[in-house]
Amino acid sequence: MSYLFTKFNLASPRWPVFSRILAATFGGYALATASSLFISQLLLNVVGKYQAIHIGLMLTFIVYACAAMWVFSVESASKAWMGLIKLTIFFTITTWLLMQFTGANS
After folding, report:
1. Whole-number Å distance between alpha carbons of 32 and 61
2. 82 with 27: CB under 8 angstroms?
3. Sign, CA torsion 23/61/92/79
4. Any idea what DSSP says for residue 75?
5. In whole angstroms, how far apart are CA 94 and each of 12, 41, 99?
């Protein structure tokens, strides 16, 4: 492990910033996608199918921007990653449960 610290200089303050950039980019994208599916599934019975998808996709931009800002406001990069992973899993499971109980799989 000490070889990695000397080889890649993992003690440098650049690595947490790089990790946050990756979290904002990829983790934010995953969270935005999961929240879009959740919002679309939630609104499916209220409005039409295409309107629900459209509203979900439009709100995705807000979720993605907020996730990117939140990643850089948290104390550490690991808390940012864990927060994004937990929210993504929550939205994914909740979307699946909504699909199972409402019977709307298409």
Report:
1. 7
2. no
3. positive
4. S
5. 39, 10, 9
